[in-house]
């Protein structure tokens, strides 16, 4: 039909156009405007069609359908470009983006209908609902330029200057700066600018050095955490482009993409429902409403970024991305908090506070003693003259001396407060996070790093974690007959057709076109779906495209880990018959069947004997470590599909009884190489492994035995293997009694997994749980450490977890356990090292101040010690890698003290040695070495620093006597020790005025090194001394309790009669 003929159908138009507006009422005028708009649009489209037909367009059929849609905004272009753009695969006009964004945000169904529905929007966006957009980089870039990228604006990361300024907020640093300023002023006034700046300037330089190094460390960690955050947010999304299903980064998603959604997925952008079944969405993250929202093509086709798919599956058309989505707006206003305090950091904060209070007390006493000695004339200057003479010493000298004394006291506080502890924790956590990333584990929540080191039980999945998750159909039973080869010819055509329906239409997977150059089709979906589809296409000769054309899907029941089955009802177009198909766990599907097919197409009744034989077949397959999947069928009428609910409404349901068994396939999923060794490593570390699986008990036992979870001495009645329903039906007391024995739980639901976690925690265990499904989220959250799977895990599971195992491998779980223990041990090493310095520095300064009226270490020297101890020490000791020894110890309990008796033994021995040596040097150094006081003080400073350098080696091993084992592997440690020694030589030999030191000769250097090196044999012998496992402070608590009881008995004694009444329960 030509354009002129088509318009003759609308002769009423001349009537409407000729009517004068004065004769029309308000409603008629509206109709006239509406008609004019439609008329104009049709005329424009007719012109377009004429232009394209003149140019010889090869695709005129597309134009015939265009009158169903309203174009949003078409750019002016040449006729040739317009003809090309009308092809859905490349059609990308500039559309009214704002209107589209608002329509989705506001759930504006009216606007959507005006645009021709979802299909109209897809056409306007140049998207083919089946094939998606073009698989072309230029296309993607063009769409990103037009509609924006799928990223949101985050607050800028903190810069280096922020951390420098943050470090200056420390009270002790501010006090030191004030002291430095005063010392600088008085020094210049007293000695002139050329000589007087040394003391004050030195303190300034030392303080700035400490601040910059601390700020640099924090800045690096901030950048590291930001990098890990970007990686954790980089979700993989499945889309179709150019007719091919593929996974892309969420950041590469563009408007017009067709996204595949399944249970557990996070919706990656705002969009519209294209097609799918039983889709329910959890929008609680957006709206706060906990009820799931049903999404379909008619009533509610709107999908929002940040929501989660709770049930069903669908294809979504992306309508807006990034900052145009409500989720993007919300996330851009949230500044993620990197200052999350881990449990270990909280314990260290208390320790730091306690040590700080002791340091403050010592510093205050030193301040008081030095002031008293100064004002009583008991201190002398460098020339041996009394510093203070009442009425003679001028005010400037007095003020200068007081400032110097005050600076010395404040410096003691600086050294005493172990601000390096938080830095050490941050460093070791950041370092371990980076290394764990390389070992296929991504840490999402910092506390998990250290908590994993305390794990006593790991509850693990089977599929993909202990096994490779590379499914392949290795057995096929039709009725009671095993069919191994020439499948398509040995099965009756009617049965084969039903198999095609059961496999090809009851699936979330898909069969794509062969990749370029390949002859085999591309299969997508879960490993199970891909294996069955591959078997059906290559073994049974199934044609997926033809199958879909011959049938229409009526209703879908999606698979989840609770039901362990999926169902579909389809209508065959040829004869309009309705067929129901179920697929799932073999014994569950068989229980729904009353008949079974034979290969010749004959249907047999499933009597007790037949059922028993089929169950035996399933058990023998399962005992061979095969996953058994059964298929069942039933033909039903339309009336049988309908079901009335409580409210009287009629719904379609899928029949679950009276089915006929089609067949059973056995899928082989081999164990991962190295998994048995990883299980044994965990068991030798005192960590129990429990396998929780949805497979049947025979498959579970076979895999558990293969992996080493069940030993060769396993007995059937030992209670080590249970089914989920059995565990669920125990009484609470029975569960608590038996949970420790259980090693394998088969046919479990997510609720059973949660129940086991809760029971284990009640027994005092620290529990780690692996999970991949949406329904695993409660158990992952409940566990002390939730471990989700990076490949098979849903986004809901990943969000609920603490650590993502990127390769889904149990060996990586064992690696995480090793790193968790390493973090804890590294912190303990640093605490031992730092407390040794703290104790030694405080005692030496206090005794020297009280007895001699002066501290042997100046403010600058103390700040240098502080730098070695805090920053460089933390870097050296917090970056040790895990060793095999860590997996030979029992796990650290929840209440185990941070500073163990072994650590107290080591640090007290070293501190006593350092105190003894340095006090001898303080009081007898001048006579022993025949040197003056400044050289003596330099010897004390040099020996003290070198003692810390040698003690760093001792701190590498808390229990082992050989502290050099594996030292060559830690180049960072050796580098820091080397840098420390070089800087110390520079401080002593070249920065005399800055560090207030004197040059030492080779003999004096040799003596200092010899004294410091003597700490090695001391550490070797001290580690031979046995210590009690009972915490040191428990004795003090016990003494306090006894003292309290005695005190109460003496001072609060009651008459005998009143105590007797109280004991009998009388008031």
TrEMBL record:
GO terms for molecular function: ATP binding; ATP hydrolysis activity; calmodulin binding; metal ion binding; P-type calcium transporter activity. The chain crosses the membrane at residues 160-188, 200-219, 355-375, 405-431, 835-853, 859-879, 972-991, 1003-1022. GO terms for cellular component: plasma membrane. It comes from the Eukaryota. InterPro entries: ATPase_P-typ_cation-transptr_C, ATPase_P-typ_cation-transptr_N, ATPase_P-typ_cyto_dom_N, ATPase_P-typ_P_site, ATPase_P-typ_TM_dom_sf, ATPase_P-typ_transduc_dom_A_sf, ATPase_P-type_domA, HAD-like_sf. It catalyses: Ca(2+)(in) + ATP + H2O = Ca(2+)(out) + ADP + phosphate + H(+). Residues 114-188 form the Cation-transporting P-type ATPase N-terminal domain. It comes from Corchorus olitorius. It is a multi-pass membrane protein. This is Calcium-transporting ATPase. Keywords: Acetylation, ATP-binding, Calcium, Calcium transport, Calmodulin-binding, Ion transport, Magnesium, Membrane, Metal-binding, Nucleotide-binding, Translocase, Transmembrane, Transmembrane helix, Transport. Catalyzes the hydrolysis of ATP coupled with the transport of calcium. It is an enzyme of class 7 (translocase). It is found in: Membrane. Belongs to the cation transport ATPase (P-type) (TC 3.A.3) family. Type IIB subfamily. Its EC number is 7.2.2.10. Its main location: membrane.
